[in-house]
Structure formats: C-alpha cells, structure tokens
Specification:
Length: about 475
C-alpha cells in the first residue's frame, strides 16, 4: 500500500507541475493547443547522465541531447563544480571596458583548437554572444560591416543553402530556408540568395554523394558569378543540415565553397553551432574538409549543455577592418551577458573533459555501435534512408521506403513516433518525418540497445495504418 501511495503521490506531483506550467508558460517551437493531450508535457525533476527523470519517477533516455546541447550527460559533476566555483568569485561583469580570466582563457583555448588551413592565417579573435542565433547575427553583421568600412557598398547580399537553418532572430532567419519557420516573417526579412543544397539524399539515381556535392558547388559558383561584387558572405552548416532533417553532404562541398569564396572575394561563414564539438566525428566538422572559415559560429555544446553562450571566431584581417579612430567603424554589437564568467567557466570545463577523457576516440567507438544497431532498420519498409555523421544518425520515413513517396503532412508520422517512443522511455523528437539519434557522449551500450529497440517499435506503431 505504501508503494502505491508513493506512486500516486508522484503522479499527483507531476500533474501539479503540469497544471502550473500550462497556466503561465508559452513553450518554444510548440503549438500550445496541442498541450496537454496531443503533445504530452513532461515535467522533469532532474537529470542523470544520458537520462532525464520526471516528477512521476519516469526515466527518459535523452536521445536528442536536449536540443543538441548536452555533450557529457546531465548534471556532469566537473562542469557543475566549475560553475559553482566561479559563482563564488565573479558571476557577471560587462565586457565593454572590462575583462576577466574565464573570457580570456576560453578565447585562447578556442583559438588553439579551431580549424586551420595550410597557407591561411589562423583564426585570431573571439567575439561572444548569448546563443546560436545571436552568434549568427554577429557573423552576418561583421561580414557586411567589413565591406562597408572599406567603402564597398555593393556587397550587401548573403548566399545560404536551400533547406538550411541558422536560427530564429530576424537576421539568422533571413538566411534560413525552412518555410515552417520563415514564411510568416518573410515581409520582415532581408533578401538572401539561396543555392542548391549538396544534400546527398537529393542525389540523382546512380550519383555519388561526392558528385552530388560537386554539382551543388557548381551551382553555387554560377550564383557567385551572377552576383559578382555583391556577395559579402556565404553561410553553410558543414556536413549536416540539422533542422532541415539531418540531411548530410560530402565533405568535398565545403572545400569547393572555400575556393569559390576566395575567388569571388566573399567571406565564408561556417555555422557549427549544432555540428561542432565532436558531433560529426572531429572536433569541428570543417576539419573534414581541410577548411578554415573566415567566421566560425559556435554555441550549443560549447558549455557542455549547461549555460547559454555563443562564440564567433574571426580572422585577424577581418578584425583589423574595424580598427579606426571613428566609433562608427567599430563593431558596436553587444549583449548584456556577453562573455558571462559562469558560462565561460562551463565552457572551459567542457574543453578540459575533451582533453582528459579522449572524447573523440570514445565517440568513434560509440558511433560504430550506433551504426551497427541502426543497420537492421535500413530494410524497414517505411525507412527510405539511414544516414550518419559521427554521433548523428537519422532515419528518413516514407510511405513505401523510397524518396518518391513521402507521407502526407496530415499523417503526422513523426509526432506519432515521438509519442510511441516517449511511452517507452526514449526522447525521439522528430524533424518532420525524420527520426534521429544524437545522444550525449556518455550513452552506454544498454542505453543504445534500448534506443534501437524503441526506435523500431516507434516506427512500427507510427506507420501501422500507412
């Protein structure tokens, strides 16, 4: 009886938090009418490693790393201890006219591990922002303003990729190409030029991923010629277009983009907000192409998933373009919490873990296990594609298991799969009808086996009436 009373009490506590939430909160990326029935709302009490624990005692494998932020597991003690220690010393100071050790130390560490390219001066300066979207805003403004300072007022255009995503603030949204996010706000957005995606899923029959990437790069080259002298930057998510459905492309594409940007005089912005810090197998995805961008945007995993922080790494030449006696030629972009000491301390602790735990080697072993567990699902009659880049693995669901027969949007296959997985203790938040695995790096073999089993069940249940 005591056990039953305890369980009833925990369920009541979860209901209590759910009711309080729905009376006051407006959730991100959510049609609130779907709560609480169509889309279950899960009150979380705490996290442990790769797991989230609800107020009702339910455990959920965080297979999406809490929107791709968590690297080493929830409540990772080393990062928590670093934040606590910093909180007892200095919690915040404005970074205009002041500085502090965590901001300096983190900038030094990031520049030391940033992508490099033979024959090119390394990235040399770090500008902090509060989140990924804000980091993209910084990079876009820097690229435009650099040409403006030179008196080159024709360079006002950005080229981005079809199906790309770079955030929700207006500047970042303007270089995104996912209609669900940008359509309503189109009248507010600056006009970008969109180049064909190198997405290997879109390859012609018999076309290799490398050939698909080359074809897309050729199209980008034609756009740069068409807008000669007008483009200030090309922005790319290296290797994986994440919010666009975890669509992946060959590393050769970024190599070609670097060459095309150099030839046209445009900057290359690498948005590694989601793919950085070991997600694709290397510390930064750009490394797989042997490319160094002019501007590198980092966030999400930067702090191990503990606190919001973004960093934009820039070349010395770009930085020098703002040095002048006039403040109008300075980069006056700012955020109140720019370079927050607590967030910088968390990021430093995260980088320490990469060094002490040989994270990338462990990730390679985990990625191999993920591939083996996912392989049987490739033959599922509703799986059109299984693709992987390091610790990121995705399943494309279609009616007949081929590219030509997507499910109608009204079928809401992804949502059905999400609910089915959640009922069995796994968080598989879909991107349309794409399910994906992006677990914290601490995920173990038992959790991966559960992930594979639940994914198959979720696909079966979601498509049972298809």
């Amino acid at each position: 009886m005591r056990q039953q009373d305890h369980q009833a009490g925990m369920l009541a506590e979860a209901d209590h938090w759910r009711a309080r939430d729905l009376s006051v909160l407006w959730h991100p990326c959510t049609q609130m009418r779907e709560h609480p029935h169509t889309l279950p709302l899960i009150p979380i009490a705490r996290g442990e490693g790769a797991w989230l624990i609800g107020h009702d005692g339910s455990r959920y494998l965080d297979a999406v790393s809490s929107w791709w932020t968590n690297l080493f597991g929830h409540a990772e003690p080393r990062i928590g201890a670093a934040i606590a220690a910093q909180a007892g010393v200095l919690e915040q100071v404005m970074l205009a006219g002041f500085t502090h050790a965590p901001a300096i130390g983190l900038a030094e560490r990031l520049l030391a591990v940033a992508p490099r390219q033979a024959g090119r001066a390394p990235l040399a300066k770090v500008f902090y922002a509060d989140n990924g979207s804000s980091g993209v805003e910084v990079a876009l403004k820097m690229a435009f303003h650099w040409f403006h300072n030179r008196g080159d007022h024709r360079r006002t255009k950005f080229i981005a990729l079809e199906n790309g995503y770079h955030g929700e603030t207006l500047g970042a949204l303007a270089v995104g190409d996912i209609p669900l996010y940008r359509r309503v706000y189109a009248p507010l957005l600056t006009e970008a030029v969109f180049a064909p995606s190198p997405d290997a899923y879109l390859a012609h029959p018999g076309e290799s991923p490398a050939a698909c990437a080359a074809r897309a790069a050729d199209a980008l080259g034609r756009l740069l010629e068409q807008h000669a002298g007008e483009v200030c930057a090309v922005i790319v998510e290296p290797r994986v277009q994440c919010a666009g459905g975890m669509r992946m492309h060959h590393a050769d594409y970024l190599t070609r983009v670097r060459e095309l940007c150099d030839a046209s005089g445009a900057f290359l912005i690498a948005d590694e907000i989601a793919v950085g810090f070991g997600r694709t197998g290397t510390l930064f995805a750009s490394e797989q192409s042997g490319v160094m961008p002019d501007l590198l945007c980092l966030s999400k995993g930067l702090t191990g998933g503990f606190l919001p922080l973004a960093a934009v790494l820039a070349t010395q030449a770009l930085y020098d373009g703002f040095l002048d006696d006039s403040r109008e030629r300075a980069f006056l972009h700012s955020h109140s919490y720019t370079g927050n000491p607590l967030a910088c301390a968390a990021a430093l602790a995260s980088l320490d873990i990469f060094r002490s735990d040989d994270v990338l080697a462990r990730n390679r072993r985990t990625a191999h296990a993920m591939a083996a567990l996912a392989a049987p699902l490739a033959s599922h009659r509703h799986v059109a594609d299984v693709r992987q880049a390091g610790m990121m693995l995705a399943f494309e669901l279609t009616q007949d298991g081929d590219k030509a027969t997507p499910f109608p949007a009204a079928a809401r296959i992804g949502l059905k799969a999400y609910r089915a997985a959640l009922a069995r203790g796994v968080v598989l938040r879909p991107l349309g009808d794409v399910l994906y695995w992006m677990p914290p790096y601490c995920v173990d073999e038992d959790a991966l086996q559960l992930l594979a089993d639940v994914t198959r069940h979720a696909i079966d249940e979601a498509t049972s009436c298809a």
